[in-house]
Amino acid sequence: MAECVVSEANKNIIDSSNQSSDVQSCQDIKTEKVMEPLLLEDFQRSRFPTTLKNIMKSFEKQGIQPSKCDFLVGCLYTLMLEYGFIPQEKESFYNDCGFNYSRIKDLVSFPAWKKSDENSYSLSFILPPHHIYTCKVICIKMGDDLIVNAIVKNIEDVHHTIMLDILSYFTDGAHQKACMDKMQNLRSLSTSFKNQVAFPVKHAILRTNGLRHPCLEDLPLEIIFYIFKYIHGTDIIKFTAISKQFHSMRLEVKLWENLILRDFKCTVKKTLSYEELMKEYGYIYRSQLRNRRHGSWKKRMVL
Fold it and tell me: Per the database record, which ranges form the F-box domain (predicted)?
């Protein structure tokens, strides 16, 4: 009987050992399968994207201890690479603007920006294979802000600007030197810069060459007006403020007549301009909001 008890105990110990080894092996498999962060926006303090490490290495090779502004410009350079641009100095090496991670890792280490003086930087890009359209990105430090201007040679009216608060991307406040593990908000930086600079520039170059880029602006107008059927008028006002093309759509008198009829069940004079109709829409909308608040307030008083 005692032997049976001992053997049963040994069996439990062996099973427990096997289970713990299985758990460990599963953890090892999970660890092996964790994907390397590819983009800057995937930054985590525990796992740095290789591109971020390469930015710091490029400064180290030049014997530079980068300031926060230097490092932020390096991040903007990387974001342009992620969007398919390459430094102008490398234009003869690449023929497509698709996403290529190995190319990004290689080019991040290439010192493609020139520091004109202590507070300004100059970067030049091309979008292969469209080599005649050079995108010039000028970064100017003003206090704790970085003003970024992008213009495209040989395309008129392509000028995009964004202002970045340098300290908002670091956790150690006003300390001047950049430290990689003190960075933060890189997803916000990536989204803002790509939406306001990289994407509009790429879109302009592709459209100039008769190529489509997957975005709302390339949809036929009748489809966009169809989408408007499901959007509130106040959101349409915001929507039509994001580009010149969309802004021209708000000039349609019929659009505002239909919105007022749809949202408020009201008809308006046919002689009103689009500006007067927009004001009328806003006036009715605010009036209804006030009435709702007043009605709910009276209801609370009765209760």
Answer: 213-259
- Rounded to whole angstroms, the Cα distance separating 193 from 162 reads 7
- Convert the pLDDT of each residue in 63-81 to its tens digit: 888 889 999 999 999 999 9
The residue with tokens 């970024």 is 148
Report the alpha-carbon distance of residue 58 to residue 113 in Å, rounded: 11
Residue 14 confidence (pLDDT) above 50? no
Q: Which residue has the higher pLDDT, 58 or 134?
A: 134
Q: Mean pLDDT across the chain, nearest whole number?
A: 80
Residue 15 in contact with residue 23, Cβ under 8 Å? no
- Provide the terminal-to-terminal Cα distance of the chain, rounded to the nearest Å: 77
Question: How many residues in total does the chain contain?
Answer: 303
Model pTM score? 0.65
Does the structure show a pLDDT above 50 at 29?
A: no
Question: Which residue, among 28, 100, 107, 114, has the nearest Cα to 70 in the 3D structure?
Answer: 114
Q: Where are the alpha helices (H) located in the chain, listed in sequence order?
A: 2-33, 50-61, 68-82, 101-108, 186-193, 199-208, 221-228, 233-239, 244-249, 253-264, 274-302
Contact criterion met (CB below 8 Å) for 237 and 278:
yes
CA distance 91 to 125: 9
